[in-house]
Amino acid sequence: MRRVFLIVLDSFGIGEMEDAQNFGDFGVNTLKSVSQSPYFAVPNMQTLGLGNIDGVAGLEPVKAPIGSYGRMTEKSQGKDTTIGHLEIAGVTMMHPLPTYPEGFPKEVLEPFSKAVGRGVLCNKPYSGTKVIQDFGDEHIRTGDLIVYTSADSVFQIAAHEEVIPLEQLYEYCRIARNILVGEHGVGRVIARPFVGPVGGPYTRTSHRHDFSLKPPKATMLDLLKEAGKDVIAVGKIYDIFAGCGITEHVYTSGNTEGIERLLEYTEKPFEGLCFVNLVDFDMLYGHRRDIDGYAKALAEFDQALPKVMAGLGEEDILMITADHGCDPAYTRTTDHTREYTPLLLYGKNLAPQNLGTRKTFADIGSTVLQWLGVPSTIDGNSVLAL
What we know:
Layout: E1 3-9, H1 30-34, H2 43-48, E2 68-72, H3 81-88, H4 106-116, E3 120-125, H5 128-142, E4 145-149, E5 154-160, H6 166-179, E6 188-195, E7 203-204, E8 209-212, H7 220-226, E9 230-234, H8 237-240, E10 248-250, H9 255-266, E11 272-278, H10 280-286, H11 291-310, E12 317-321, E13 341-346, E14 354-358, H12 362-371
Helix pairs in contact: 4-6, 9-11, 10-11
């Protein structure tokens, strides 16, 4: 019985890619920036080879890493969650998903507003924590929905939980998802509920829900499921893939719970993939430019690694990677950053090796399929020579 534990440290980039300037990013390096914090401590990932990866700055290499290590290049034309995870799962997107730096056009908003029977506030790129402070009072007074976007391909709807019940907000998101297809097929429609007294301050709740665009073709997850393997999604993985290819899923409230669920699954018998996303790096610390918070979150994960590794069987492998960057020291923007990502690979019977710089994130999906004995039709090549 073989198992793969694939963990995405959401936004943990390790240095700007050669084409980063085409995405408006200059000199970005999430790992290097976070390493400046006094709270930065990742000795277990360092032992696996994190500091030995090509081009890594801010972390010393070790003489004899116990894992294999490599630098992943994003081939797809984007730097967001959806595109990053799709590529990890073997689908490269050579055309960027649509973004709306000037807000959404009438052909999107008018049918949406008519369908939900409510007006729209904001309709521009905005900080998610700031938009509810600036438009929260008007939303409560009028019942109009706060619709906003970012540099990513997202349509976000913020609503007060006492004005718009959660299930109603989710239904509004489903309506938006059905409208946002084709030319306007954004990567995600996101429900952003919040609470607070009239006049504020308002705070977002943990009831966020993502409604993703369905993958354009079969992913690693679909192939595993069709082959009768278990595909377990932890965190927002289920939402990212719109449920496609998933056999079991559990949502989490953040990194701490995600790590707890991961540890629980190391103790459970299954054959296939446990795919975990730890979102706090990105959502709580990267976008909010909180270097110390990011460092503390990395330390928390690193401290749990020995338990995760101890839970691996003789035929199990552990893979640690990321989906994009979000440099918390970058001051030009609070958005994601176009960066290489790490790949750390460990198995009790795998010989450590330098995997070099890979041409696509999709090599991860191909590696998972090879390890689990499932023929691959996805993009990418396995990093293993079995």
